[in-house]
Design brief:
There is one protein chain. The protein has 42 residues and is mainly α. 69% of the residues lie in helices and 0% in strands. The chain is built from two helices and no strands. The chain has helices at 2-14, 22-37. The longest helix has 16 residues, at 22-37. The mean pLDDT is 95.
């Protein structure tokens, strides 16, 4: 998941809007934490 976050940040920086996807990435991380907490990851 780190690679995906880095890619999104790089794309946002290149488009002169480095904070554009911050909220979506935070939601994604919270979702991942929830899956991990409930042992729903392989």
């Amino acid at each position: 998941m780190l690679k995906e976050v880095q890619d999104v940040r790089r794309i946002a920086r290149n488009n002169k809007n480095p904070r554009k996807y911050n909220e979506a990435m935070l939601e994604m991380l919270e979702y991942f934490k929830c899956l991990e907490k409930n042992k729903l990851l392989p």
